[in-house]
Design a protein that fits this description.
Ubiquitin-like (UB roll); four-stranded mixed β-sheet; 12 strands
Length: 304
Amino acid sequence: MTGKAYGPVGNAGPVAPHACRAGPFACPGSQPGPEGPRGWSRHARPGRPGGEKLTGGHISVEPRINERIRVPEVRLVGPNGEQVGIVALGDALRLAQESDLDLVEVAPTARPPVCKLMDYGKFKYESALKARESRKNQAQTVIKEIKLRPKIDPHDYGTKKGHVERFLRQGDKVKVTIMFRGREQSRPELGFRLLQRLAADVEELGFVESQPKQDGRNMIMVIGPHRRKSEAKADRSAQHAERAAPRQRAARNSAAAARPAGGADQAGPESTGPESTGPESTGPGGTEPGGTEPESTPEAEAQG
């Protein structure tokens, strides 16, 4: 008995002609498992069971230190830069351990590799500080863009020229674009003359880095600054400091003038000694301190 399109029919139902059956002559890896046919995977590669991909490990950019160095001998440099010479790796590690330092491979491509005795933690910290300072002082040049029309109004031209001057003072490049519309495309000399006029007006602050050239419907020219970005940044910082100096001096003077007045109010009246507190003390019986009786008055005699 045969099926309609699948060949012979067994207990398991119709089977495709190219399928392998179970039994002593079964195809290797054809028995189904919990995840499909055993021993087969769509993502498997030769020699990597389970479909693991052959990917490389992480490439370290840090130098090798101490036991990570895998060479028989090294050219050793002392902690102060003195040349020790070519020594065995074990001796170099022993010297590093005795000096309480690390053995750092500074030139791995040399033959033999150059290693130096140093405090690796301190070296990494100082390197990070230097990189941070270099990034702080590094200035990135930015290209600003100004767009003009061939028939620009004189007032608008002055405004655009002011923007170009401000950008050049800050140390940035300026890309000037002339936009042509309609019949203006047949008169490119209008845009060329306008760009030449702008370059002549700002020649004290910048120079023409890229000459005017036609780019489709636009004409482009690039103006570069005479000063670098870092110099312009330093000048701006100095100007801000000069502007803030008078205000800081005024604030210090006002604080100094207010401090003595506040201190006197808090201190109150000057304190006096025990002799000046209250009325003068008298001796026993109303006598003065010297032991002499006070002089009698007529009113006192009358009362007596």
